[in-house]
Automatic annotation (TrEMBL), chains A, B:
Catalysed reactions, as listed in the record: 2,5-diamino-6-hydroxy-4-(5-phosphoribosylamino)-pyrimidine + H2O + H(+) = 5-amino-6-(5-phospho-D-ribosylamino)uracil + NH4(+); 5-amino-6-(5-phospho-D-ribitylamino)uracil + NADP(+) = 5-amino-6-(5-phospho-D-ribosylamino)uracil + NADPH + H(+)
Residues engaged in binding NADP(+): A159, W175, T201, D205, S228, G297, P298, T299, L300, A301, G302, S303
Cofactor binding: number and manner: Binds 1 zinc ion.
Co-factor(s): Zn(2+)
Start and end residues of each CMP/dCMP-type deaminase domain: 6-128
Active site: E57 (proton donor)
Name the record gives this protein: Riboflavin biosynthesis protein RibD
Source species taxonomy: Bacteria, Pseudomonadati, Pseudomonadota, Gammaproteobacteria, Woeseiales
Domain of life: Bacteria
Molecular function GO labels: 5-amino-6-(5-phosphoribosylamino)uracil reductase activity; diaminohydroxyphosphoribosylaminopyrimidine deaminase activity; NADP binding; zinc ion binding
Organism of derivation: Woeseia oceani
Coiled coil, from the record: none
Amino acid sequence: MTDFTQQDFRCMARALQLARRGEFTARPNPMVGCVLAVGEEIIGEGWHAEAGGPHAEAAALLAAADRARGATAYVTLEPCAHTGRTGPCADALIRAGVKRVVAAVQDPFPAVAGQGFAKLRAAGMAVDVGLMQDAARDLNRGFLSRIERGRPFVRLKMASSIDGATAMTDGTSQWITGAAARHDVQRLRALSGAVLTGAGTARADDPQLTVRDTFPGGRQPLRVLLDSRLTVEQRARMLQDGTATLVFCVDDSDRERFAATNAEIVKVAAKDGRPSLPAVLEELASRQVNDLLVEAGPTLAGSLLMADLVDELVIYQAAHIMGSQTRGLVVTPDWTELLDRLPLRITDRRVVGSDFRITAEPAARPAHTGN
Amino acid sequence: MTDFTQQDFRCMARALQLARRGEFTARPNPMVGCVLAVGEEIIGEGWHAEAGGPHAEAAALLAAADRARGATAYVTLEPCAHTGRTGPCADALIRAGVKRVVAAVQDPFPAVAGQGFAKLRAAGMAVDVGLMQDAARDLNRGFLSRIERGRPFVRLKMASSIDGATAMTDGTSQWITGAAARHDVQRLRALSGAVLTGAGTARADDPQLTVRDTFPGGRQPLRVLLDSRLTVEQRARMLQDGTATLVFCVDDSDRERFAATNAEIVKVAAKDGRPSLPAVLEELASRQVNDLLVEAGPTLAGSLLMADLVDELVIYQAAHIMGSQTRGLVVTPDWTELLDRLPLRITDRRVVGSDFRITAEPAARPAHTGN
């Protein structure tokens, strides 16, 4: 393991900060930041703003111009070695006379995957890998999930009262949470390549699942609906606004009904009469979805949790007690013992307007001792 | 309204801090603190440690000795004018030659209720009332509730997962929360004159409801059980440990069964076949209970909430999702619309060990618009 200097940490921290600027725009590409430094001085900065645009290294080299000779380049991800929509960054760094490259993580993307580092080393450059790699992996956990696991990073958004209720028994739920929490959900949508919901929510709420608030450079996520038997109405808002919505089913005999809508019907393998969740996630990864936001009812939310397919939970908790004439957060028939409960590792807690937001990751269950 | 000086605020803040030292011991008396000051200098401090012991003023006068002449006395509650277990503090202040008294609040206790102030003024003393009165009232909300409303301050303690579950469907609930939260509940018990539970919890958990952890000078709260038809077993731990437990019922025909236990059976008015909750609270106030801690199941908790008899909720939230094969926090059949939910004013949120504690007060419901 290389001994990194304080200057190395300072420059990589800055590169990570720059990378984050692409959070609403870089997808399906990873967010990448680059800092060029000579001694204590930063002589060029860059980040990857959008697919087809300059990579972070190219932007930093452009800023540094002819001062890059002899510099150290700090990159949050391995420089590419292949010609994609832009030329290989490894070649550009070599051409500019950079003498050392410090990278946070190797790019798992098959066309890179160590070949960028190999090319740099072959040109005589010093290459140090692994500086602040946890932060760098966290930044691109969606992209890394798609490449490494073949499925998007799955974020489950939920909203409830303090006693875990999401609606009254009659279904009334507007609004459990306040305006600030709803705006925060818009931000989560804008960060995501796709937003997933189920047929029950589509029927009950007729949601648009679009980003209505403005985020700099933000694009609309792909809308995804799970509807086993294509029961959703043609006039549903998410099928009528001219932008594609992906509809997963297990029985597409009613497919023709959706010819005049913007639905793209995809039939997938069934599990218990419903779309196989791993198959759905695999299909979304093949469509370059890095981050999937799930905004679903308790049945689909529970199914994802029981199948261990949720990577992060974002729970908005309203300061209310709603009582027992209500519906709960999740439907989890398989969890019958206290040991079945899902332990969470809380990663963030904060006030969002009148509500409280809890961000958490599923943690390992204690081993069942058996009976 | 008197214009209080910075010195006035400084001394009253100190008096409030001193008063708090009696939190585990002063009951059923109020917590009171007293500071004697001459100019910038504090020449005596006192607080009321326990019933029968010196009042705060007497303790401060003792500390100041003959320097009290011409001093200002800061007291968090009106000095008493009557002879109780100790002589009247108003007389002691006059005798010591104190020239000004600043009090946070008037004592609503009928034997005081302005007579202390009147006596001081009659002796030619300057008396200013109302400095930091919100903090002073908050400190003694239990005592003030008992005197002003004729019922204890009611604190409802609950523990659940993040999705609001308190037990699996089969009743398994040990333990939802961790050791630090359970210790914190011991502290709440030690702060309370009584701890209330219901027959269901008594049957299911056979709790002792005693303070087992050590708090300085702490005493055991009175245990209170609501058991409409006296169905609890004689061998229940809270009836067999030699310390009195109050059992409220509406049908005491089985009273004889408890002759050999430490139960004191009290028959009260019924409402819907159960002990009338206002009647129970009134009886507890008559027994000088200032603060009542409720550690009950979802039915009794829900009944108290529906009856608007809860003053504070303390909710320990464990970092788990327990799912739908579970029991909820409260049973509230009367709340059928979203407008029926109980809005909370959050007064504190903090991590307690592995859990999260939310402290809140019921807030006003938005007015129903009617249908």
